[in-house]
TrEMBL record:
It comes from Paenibacillus flagellatus. Keywords: ATP-binding, Kinase, Lactose metabolism, Nucleotide-binding, Transferase. It catalyses: beta-D-fructose 1-phosphate + ATP = beta-D-fructose 1,6-bisphosphate + ADP + H(+); D-tagatofuranose 6-phosphate + ATP = D-tagatofuranose 1,6-bisphosphate + ADP + H(+). Belongs to the carbohydrate kinase PfkB family. LacC subfamily. This is Tagatose-6-phosphate kinase. The gene is pfkB. SUPFAM superfamilies: Ribokinase-like. Its EC number is 2.7.1.144.
Length: 316
């Protein structure tokens, strides 16, 4: 595949990551370290693709002074970006890392409310953005006031242009988005359980659940399960990837790194097995980094052989 990947982030963020010795609810918690990164799902995907030397443009909506900070950070990273401006303020998402447990607690703001006029401009601009674009990545929550079927509409436009869509969303935005048949989706296990309204306790349950999305027209489903790894499913195979041991620093951006590695795999015509390996290595390395820092190509290549893969039988 040639051309430049387009990532869409309707609700980007400044990610503020703070570390505390031990997070205690209802008490004073002293912060040890603070860092800020440009965040939001499509933005993180663009950060990884840039490091993987895949041409990428980050597109989205921003607002206010924080929106300008976000655009400046993307300039610093050398990522071409294009944002429509909305009233309000780009959100700041707080990530609290507990140094004793290595667990990250996320507090994500709802974000600005784009006007119907901005949303219309965004939708019609997409038509013109799709020239020479092989893959569109739609990632993250929809800001307040955006209709739940907005991703469905954008996916419809991309599909009409023959562009592969990877959708990484949750809740209603994911449910409605799937109706437009994106090429691939990357729910985490909680998002998949919420989507299907059932508990998925075994690998077989997850493969069956992924199969129900394939039946709705999705071609590839990648389910991530934090430290338990991931399962990639298409019509022919289901492959479980077990990550190598790491000391998690901040898991923020790990899922987005998987999505980026998925786009990289499509760009390079990789098999499902190779895709399972690349996506797992990328997510795992990012989980071992602080803040919303992401994996590099060299790091991923070095760790590919450490990912353990096994087939899960497809239901008959
Ligand atoms: N604690 C961890 N140890 C090892 N790998 C992890 C850990 N947390 C996340 N990962 C890696 O990151 C990937 C994505 O994590 P996950 O939390 O499922 O994504 P999301 O951020 O989308 O919820 C996992 O499949 C795994 O490869
Ligand atoms: O749009 P949402 O669902 O609020 O998520 C936004 C947050 O997700 C992130 O993109 C990280 O996502 P992942 O941990 O799933 O990779 C952060 O950078 C951002 O703060």
């Amino acid at each position: 595949m040639n051309g430049s990947v387009l990532t869409l982030t309707m609700n980007p963020a400044i990610d503020k990551t703070v570390t505390v010795d031990q997070l205690t609810f209802g008490e004073l918690n002293r912060i040890r370290t603070v860092r800020t990164d440009a965040g939001g799902k499509g933005i993180n995907v663009a950060k990884v693709l840039k490091r993987f030397a895949v041409p990428v443009t980050a597109w989205g909506i921003r607002a206010g002074r924080e929106g300008q900070t976000l655009a400046d950070k993307l300039d610093e990273y050398g990522i071409p970006s294009f944002f429509l401006e909305s009233d309000g303020q780009t959100r700041t998402n707080l990530k609290v890392v507990d140094a004793s447990t290595k667990r990250t607690t996320e507090l994500n703001e709802p974000g600005f409310t784009p006007s119907p006029a901005v949303l219309e401009r965004f939708e019609s601009a997409l038509e013109h953005m799709l020239k020479n674009v092989p893959i569109v990545v739609l990632g993250g929550s929809l800001p307040p006031g955006v209709p739940a079927d907005y991703y469905r509409r954008l996916i419809g436009t991309a599909n009409r242009h023959g562009v592969r869509v990877i959708l990484d969303a949750d809740g209603e935005a994911l449910a409605r988005g799937i109706e437009a048949k994106p090429f691939a989706v990357k729910p985490n296990i909680h998002e998949l359980e919420a989507l299907l309204g059932e508990r998925l306790s075994t690998d077989a349950d997850i493969v069956r659940a992924a199969g129900s999305l394939l039946d709705r027209g999705v071609e590839l489903v990648l389910v991530s399960m934090g430290g338990d790894g991931s399962i990639a499913v298409d019509r022919r195979r289901a492959i479980r990837a077990t990550p190598f041991p790491i000391t998690p620093q901040s898991t923020v951006g790990a899922g987005d790194s998987m999505v980026a590695a998925m786009a990289y795999s499509f760009m390079n015509g990789l098999s499902l097995e190779e895709t399972a390996r690349w996506t797992s290595a990328a997510g795992t390395i990012t989980a071992s980094k602080s803040g919303t820092d992401v994996c590099t190509l060299d790091e991923v290549k070095r760790c590919l052989g450490l990912v353990r893969l096994s087939d899960i039988p497809l239901p008959v």
